[in-house]
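Cross-check.
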Amino acid sequence: MHSIKETKISEGVLPVSVGLQPSLDAEHMKPKIPQNKKRLVTISLLAIAIGIVVSFVAKFLMYIINLITNISFYGSLAGEGNPSYNHLGIWVIFIPVIGGLIVGLMIYYGSVGIRGHGIPEAMEQILTNKSKINPNIVYLKPLSSAIAIGTGGPFGAEGPVIATGGALGSAVGQILRITDKERKILLSAGAAAGMAAVFGSPIASIFLAIELLLFEFSPRSLIPIALACITGAAGHHLLFGEGPIFPMHNVAVPGNIALLWYSVIGIAIGFLSILSTKLVFWAEDLFKKIPIHFMWYPAIGGLVVGIIGYFAPRTLGVGYYNITDILSGGLTFKLILSLAVLKFISWAIALGSGTSGGTLAPLFTIGGATGLLLGICIQQYFPNAGVTLPIAALIGMSAMFAGASRALLTSIIFAIESTGQSNALLPLLAACSAAYFISFFFMETTIMTEKIFRKGVKVPESYEPDALEIMQVSQVLSTSYPILKETDSIEDAQKTLAETKEDLDYIIITNQNGEFKGFLNWRRLWEAATASEKLGHLVKNKNKTFINDDASLIEAIQIMLEQKEDALPVISNKDQHFIGLLTYRNILSAYKTSLDAEKEFDPSISLKRKRLKAIAKGHQLYEQWKAHK
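Predicted model, tokenized:
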């Protein structure tokens, strides 16, 4: 019988057995899990292809919207597709109602998924359904949206294109043999390419995918989405023309006083963005109380749209021209006020009815008109503030989206890309940050997340790196375990471990040469068949999966799940010696430590201690001076 060795691993590393060393890298050693760059190339090519298709979908949708608009309001196949110049009189009220009826039938007989403005529905599928969207949405969403908008619905075409692009990416991901994460990337790439194809804003579209769909920032997702957005922007230039979609006169860089006032406008728009979200979902809740099937809701919403459109024709339809006119200052005060108030009411009720359409253009219109009104007021009462109306309208447009969606970077970059006004960067940053701040502190959800939040789906709101991905195995592994010989009996090991006062989970087993043979959970000592059985028999053909000390804890978790182990032997990457064990308790403890660190408010530099040291040093110098004197 061999005595049990009480030394710890921390007193010295153990070599791996000679027989295991040659096959360590080939079979038993689990390497770091690399990113599959070949798969990244494949996904990127698919994203480009999706971007090409989505570009033509955007052009087709705009064509269909114009066609339906001309037929509905002018009885013609040709025209500019602008319903605000119609001469239907009171009959204009019934056009949106007819459109709502058709959309309701499509919802009932086609798919409920075509309801809404697209982005929340895509978010829900990403978070709850492994990014699987019903393929029917690929054609039902643009068609239903074209009917809703073409008959006067106060929506933008970008939402349906974004939803269609996402559905197309998801459909491709469901046909091919790819992972859930790759399907999420394709869905996001299709959605972002849709926005780039409509507005010609590839950078803002990338940020839209990151801030609202991906919930991550990594090369495997950024590269395909960037390529899809570039493709979508190229499609916009080819099919819609070059230049910014909302052209405006060049603006000058504002002074500090003007920046302060633009921030005030951003704060006001922030509260308006909260109101917009509340109003939309108040309308949705109101419709749910009506004792009829929800397929009729779009027609009822269309009735409100028609009534408002009769008094304010500019509230009807897509209204991209409204945004251009607001930014260029080509509207009267009465029209600006009608867009800020009546467009707001018409859009909120129509969206609450569950019809199909986008939110970006209405938010830009409402925010731009409100920003312009605030700018006019500031100029009236504070003429020396340095506020200019084009910038006030631009920051109102952008801040409205920043507050309603909390897509801060998307809002800022979009305003610059869509207008070409880089000099507006500082006021945009000031106003959008202010609106974001107000929205974050006074509203739990956003217009993009409220619907799925009500279903119990929690949406990530931060993009912090995973603490377990940053930490290395060497930082948390345990090195203080008893070392026992493989020839020691279970009975002797039980006696010795029963006498120890330490809280032990595992013991290390070595051969006669002191080489690592394996490890055991101490509970197995009481599960063995006979007390005379040797420890070496319990680790025979076990513990053959190792992990390097420089691997991340995320990699360790993946290996533990694959091997169904609750601990892994760790070897040094330098000399391939066994240096300790990594257990699931180590990982949980490390994660808890990272969470606790966020709650610590202790200063790293103690001003009180430094002050006392300074006083003591001053006293010492004074005494030295007195002695020399």
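Confidence is low (pLDDT under 50) at residues 1-8, 17-33. The beta strands are 5-8, 14-15, 29-30, 482-485, 506-510, 516-521, 546-548, 567-571, 577-583. Passed to J.P. for a second look.
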